Amino acid sequence: MLTLLTLVILYFLPSIIGREKRDATGIILLNLFFGWTVIGWVIALIWACTAEPYCPVKLVPVPAGGRFCCQCGTIAYLGAHFCTSCGRTV
What we know:
rod-shaped; 2 domains; single chain; 4 helices; two-stranded antiparallel sheet; mainly alpha; 42% helix; 2 strands; 90 residues
């Protein structure tokens, strides 16, 4: 019984490693359907171990109640009806 459990965990090792990735569904499906072939299992393992590209997130402070102009993207102040940069209605 312990051997069977170990083999199941080893079979689904790529799915376990890649469960937090953005394309985890693809890794799980590849492992499920083509994992019985050695090549499919290796491809799923490599896909699960590859690093995801780094996407930095830029934090833009917004004053309380402020809105962004949909034309130019600048911050319109609270109560403003027109953008101070482009003049468009906010």
